[in-house]
């Protein structure tokens, strides 16, 4: 039986980053991955293909607005197969890049599905055969998969999960998206930009639950302006039909009424659930919570010594960068260092146009906790760079303790996902709005809206 200091199960952003860092720290490491390529959900069917299609579709949509710049574009066409080909090449290059990084760092890539028959042993099953690996420590990084909607079967042809919605061969006539969360909005906007009518049906009376409510409203307004239709406060209770002709039954939440909606494709995007089946958690006695997430302590240890877990399969935000931070902190702790993740400053970004970016507490959470706070807001309409770019929708909002210490920041606007980085750094260093406001920001730049929002929290915005 081949022996390793660490065997990682799962080669996604959590697992592959942990494996590389552990190898850097001098451990002998194997990473077991079943899907045939490294990079996990993120590189294969998540972050990267979705961002590739968001970029391509944004370029196509932008053509419609070039007339305002005095540019005429006649005869623009859409070659969806070429767009998908570009996306697939990006995915292929990135996943091969991880294999290269494994070789460079001496991580052994073991292809197959892993399970843990007993502490210290990983069984790898592949093509009917199996092998055992001896492991000083085991790290479970098996990620997540789309949560199913009861009574609805995802066939990836007509009723799609995000994976199917990233690989359609034709632009749907009417795509109904179930769930106004991150996936629903990002992929809804891709297909809307490419010409589909897109209706987003959401159970709650708002979009993007978990984000600051005021900023989510701005996002809803901007996305509606760009063509998405929203039906909020509706629960999908059934889907009938098939082959490009589907009828959804919707129940109005809190009312006794039902409605129907016709579609040729449906995207189910109602959240994701941890992947742990087949690992042998029950036999090992590894504790999971009521939603199936593996329970861990502050050092990522499961209830069984020598077995650790990180990323989407443990409680917390289901984000690639959070999984990476988990992985690094976990193996650094194993190596005797002080691995640490500040979960209060993990940013989240929705890559729609406009982008929706957030870090820290929302205003709703502060109110609910009875925390005293001050807030500042600055609309991009008053930012000169946003005006010259014609990207004036949205605002920057900051929330701070009465002494000015930043507690949360929320942005709806162009490049919000990049702008939030300044506020993440400020928060992680315990900075106050005064310090951000007194930092010289280049002019004209979108970042001036961040400075002005901080000035506004102090009651002295200049351009508002
Ligand atoms: P995963 O990436 O899910 O990787 C787990 C890996 O383990 C998988 O490859 C799986 O095949 C493998 N595995 C599972 N069980 C076994 C087993 N028993 N043996 C061997 N291998 C196994 N996050 C962001 O931060 N930014 C984004 O822009 C973003 N966009 C997204 C877009 C979409 C459409 C989706 C679906 C997700 C997106 N995410 C994004 C979320 C992100 O993909 C996940 O948070 C991230 O991939 C989690 O990393 P992980 O390593 O925990 O798990
Ligand atoms: P989500 O949790 O973001 O949103 C799901 C939405 O579906 C919620 O608004 C919820 O109220 C709604 N919903 C649930 N049941 C419903 C029902 N029966 N009918 C109608 N609406 C219903 O989940 P989503 O969008 O599937 O994404 C999963 C995770 O993937 C995200 O939480 C995020 O962590 C990750 N992700 C991150 C991205 C990014 O960082 N840019 C991009 C895509 C995914």
Automatic annotation (TrEMBL):
<dbReference type="GO" id="GO:0050660">
    <property type="term" value="F:flavin adenine dinucleotide binding"/>
</dbReference>
<feature type="binding site">
    <location>
        <position position="271"/>
    </location>
    <ligand>
        <name>NAD(+)</name>
    </ligand>
</feature>
<protein>
    <recommendedName>
        <fullName>Dihydrolipoyl dehydrogenase</fullName>
        <ecNumber>1.8.1.4</ecNumber>
    </recommendedName>
</protein>
<dbReference type="InterPro" id="IPR016156">
    <property type="entry name" value="FAD/NAD-linked_Rdtase_dimer_sf"/>
</dbReference>
<dbReference type="InterPro" id="IPR036188">
    <property type="entry name" value="FAD/NAD-bd_sf"/>
</dbReference>
<feature type="binding site">
    <location>
        <begin position="318"/>
        <end position="321"/>
    </location>
    <ligand>
        <name>FAD</name>
    </ligand>
</feature>
<dbReference type="Pfam" id="PF07992">
    <property type="entry name" value="Pyr_redox_2"/>
</dbReference>
<dbReference type="InterPro" id="IPR023753">
    <property type="entry name" value="FAD/NAD-binding_dom"/>
</dbReference>
<feature type="active site" description="Proton acceptor">
    <location>
        <position position="443"/>
    </location>
</feature>
<feature type="binding site">
    <location>
        <position position="202"/>
    </location>
    <ligand>
        <name>NAD(+)</name>
    </ligand>
</feature>
<feature type="binding site">
    <location>
        <begin position="142"/>
        <end position="144"/>
    </location>
    <ligand>
        <name>FAD</name>
    </ligand>
</feature>
<feature type="domain" description="FAD/NAD(P)-binding">
    <location>
        <begin position="4"/>
        <end position="327"/>
    </location>
</feature>
<feature type="binding site">
    <location>
        <position position="114"/>
    </location>
    <ligand>
        <name>FAD</name>
    </ligand>
</feature>
<feature type="binding site">
    <location>
        <position position="51"/>
    </location>
    <ligand>
        <name>FAD</name>
    </ligand>
</feature>
<keyword id="KW-0547">Nucleotide-binding</keyword>
<feature type="domain" description="Pyridine nucleotide-disulphide oxidoreductase dimerisation">
    <location>
        <begin position="346"/>
        <end position="453"/>
    </location>
</feature>
<dbReference type="InterPro" id="IPR006258">
    <property type="entry name" value="Lipoamide_DH"/>
</dbReference>
<dbReference type="GO" id="GO:0005737">
    <property type="term" value="C:cytoplasm"/>
</dbReference>
<dbReference type="InterPro" id="IPR004099">
    <property type="entry name" value="Pyr_nucl-diS_OxRdtase_dimer"/>
</dbReference>
<dbReference type="InterPro" id="IPR012999">
    <property type="entry name" value="Pyr_OxRdtase_I_AS"/>
</dbReference>
<feature type="binding site">
    <location>
        <begin position="179"/>
        <end position="186"/>
    </location>
    <ligand>
        <name>NAD(+)</name>
    </ligand>
</feature>
<keyword id="KW-1015">Disulfide bond</keyword>
<dbReference type="GO" id="GO:0006103">
    <property type="term" value="P:2-oxoglutarate metabolic process"/>
</dbReference>
<dbReference type="InterPro" id="IPR050151">
    <property type="entry name" value="Class-I_Pyr_Nuc-Dis_Oxidored"/>
</dbReference>
<keyword id="KW-0676">Redox-active center</keyword>
<keyword id="KW-0520">NAD</keyword>
<keyword id="KW-0274">FAD</keyword>
<comment type="similarity">
    <text>Belongs to the class-I pyridine nucleotide-disulfide oxidoreductase family.</text>
</comment>
<dbReference type="InterPro" id="IPR001100">
    <property type="entry name" value="Pyr_nuc-diS_OxRdtase"/>
</dbReference>
<keyword id="KW-0560">Oxidoreductase</keyword>
<dbReference type="GO" id="GO:0004148">
    <property type="term" value="F:dihydrolipoyl dehydrogenase (NADH) activity"/>
</dbReference>
<dbReference type="Pfam" id="PF02852">
    <property type="entry name" value="Pyr_redox_dim"/>
</dbReference>
<feature type="disulfide bond" description="Redox-active">
    <location>
        <begin position="42"/>
        <end position="47"/>
    </location>
</feature>
<feature type="binding site">
    <location>
        <position position="312"/>
    </location>
    <ligand>
        <name>FAD</name>
    </ligand>
</feature>
<keyword id="KW-0285">Flavoprotein</keyword>
């Amino acid at each position: 039986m081949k022996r390793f200091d660490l065997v990682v199960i799962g080669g996604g952003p959590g697992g592959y980053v942990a494996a590389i860092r552990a190898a850097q720290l001098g451990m002998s490491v194997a990473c077991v991955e079943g899907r045939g390529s490294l990079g996990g959900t993120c590189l294969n069917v998540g972050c990267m293909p979705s961002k590739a299609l968001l970029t391509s579709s944004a370029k196509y949509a932008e053509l419609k607005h070039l007339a305002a710049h005095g540019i005429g574009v006649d005869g623009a066409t859409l070659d969806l197969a070429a767009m998908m080909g570009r996306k697939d090449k990006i995915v292929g290059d990135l996943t091969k890049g991880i294999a290269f990084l494994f070789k460079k760092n001496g991580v052994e890539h073991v292809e197959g599905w892993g399970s843990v028959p007993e502490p210290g042993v990983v069984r790898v099953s592949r093509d009917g055969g199996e092998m055992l690996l001896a492991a000083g420590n085991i790290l479970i990084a098996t990620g997540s998969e789309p949560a199913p909607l009861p009574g609805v079967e995802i066939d990836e042809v007509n009723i799609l999960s995000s994976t199917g919605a990233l690989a359609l061969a034709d632009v749907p006539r009417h795509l109904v998206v179930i769930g106004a969360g991150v996936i629903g909005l990002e992929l809804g906007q891709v297909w809307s930009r490419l010409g589909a009518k897109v209706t987003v049906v959401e159970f709650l009376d708002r979009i993007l639950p978990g984000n600051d409510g005021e900023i989510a409203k701005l996002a809803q307004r901007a996305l509606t302006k760009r063509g998405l239709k929203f039906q909020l406060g509706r629960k999908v209770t059934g889907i009938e039909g098939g082959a490009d002709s589907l009828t959804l039954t919707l129940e109005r939440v809190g009312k006794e009424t039902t409605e129907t909606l016709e579609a040729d494709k449906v995207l189910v995007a109602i959240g994701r659930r941890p992947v742990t089946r087949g690992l042998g958690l029950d036999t090992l006695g590894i504790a999971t919570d009521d939603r199936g997430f593996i329970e861990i302590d502050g050092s990522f240890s499961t209830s069984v010594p020598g077995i650790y877990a990180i990323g989407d399969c443990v409680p917390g935000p289901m984000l690639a960068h959070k999984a990476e931070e988990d992985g690094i902190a976990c193996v650094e702790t194993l190596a005797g260092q002080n691995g640490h993740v500040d979960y209060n400053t993990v940013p989240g970004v929705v890559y729609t146009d406009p982008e929706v970016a957030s870090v820290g507490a929302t205003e709703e959470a502060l109110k609910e906790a009875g925390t005293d706070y001050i807030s500042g807001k600055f609309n991009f309409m008053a930012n000169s760079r946003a005006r010259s770019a014609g990207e004036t929708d949205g605002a920057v909002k900051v929330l701070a303790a009465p002494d000015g210490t930043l507690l949360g920041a929320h942005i709806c606007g162009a490049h919000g996902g990049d702008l939030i980085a300044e506020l993440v750094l400020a928060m992680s260093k315990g900075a106050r709005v005064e310090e951000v406001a007194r930092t010289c920001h280049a002019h004209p730049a979108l970042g001036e809206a961040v400075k002005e929002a901080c000035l506004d929290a102090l009651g002295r915005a200049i351009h508002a």
